[in-house]
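for ur thesis appendix - Cytokinin riboside 5'-monophosphate phosphoribohydrolase. copy paste whatever u need, i formatted it the way the template wanted (i think)
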Amino acid sequence: MYAEGIDEEERIREAITPKSWNEIMTSDSWAVFKIMAELVDGFEKMGRIGPCVTIFGSARTKSNQKYYKLAEEIAYLLTKKGFGIISGGGPGIMEAANKGAHFGGGKSVGLNIELPFEQSANPFIDPDKLITFDYFFVRKVMFMKYSQGYIVLPGGFGTLDELFEAITLIQTHKTVRFPIVLVSTDYWKGLIDWIHHNMLAEKNISITDLDIFTLVDTAEEATAIIEEYYNKYALKPNF
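the 3d part is after this line
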C-alpha cells in the first residue's frame, strides 16, 4: 500500500524504479505478515456471525434514490427471516443494507476498505462488527467465505468485480452454489444481453452458467429467492 500524500506520478516512478533483491524480499515479507493479520482477524470475527447474505452495490447511491431504499427494504426483510447482512461497510447501498438490518433488529457486518478519498464506515454498524481492510483481495475472501447468498444492486466497477468473483467461484465449483440475485432489470439488462450475445455466442461460457444468477425487480422477489434456497437445502437460521 502507498503512503498518503504520494501523488500518481510519484507512485509510477516508485513502481518502475529497479530495486535490489533484498529490498524486494524485505518489503514483500512484511506485506505477507500484514495480509496474514488481516486474514486471521477477519476469520476470527466472521466465524461467529451465522448465516449471512451479502448486499453489494454502489457507494455513490444517495439516500433519496430508489436503489438505496430498495437495498434498505431487502435487508430489512432478510433480517426478519433470520438472516444476517454483510455489506462493504461504507456509504450508499452498503449503508442502506446495514440500515435495513439495524431497523429490522438483525445482525449486520461491515467489511470496510481503506481508500485515499473514500470510504468512511457508515453509522449503522456496531463497532465490534466493523472490520477494516487494506487489501481488496483479503476483503473479498471474507465476502466469499462467509456469505451464503448475494444480492447485487446497481453499482460500478467494484460491484462488478464482486459479482463476477462470486459467479466465477460458483462456476468453477470453488464455492457452494449459493444464490446470486441481480436487482433491477433496467440496470442489468444491457450486461446480461452482452453475456448472451458475446460470451455465450462465442462459447466462452456454457448455457448452464446463465443459471448461476437470477434477475428480479422487487425486494420481495429478492428475499423469496434466498428463503426458497434455504427451505430447499438447509434448516432455516435461528438466531
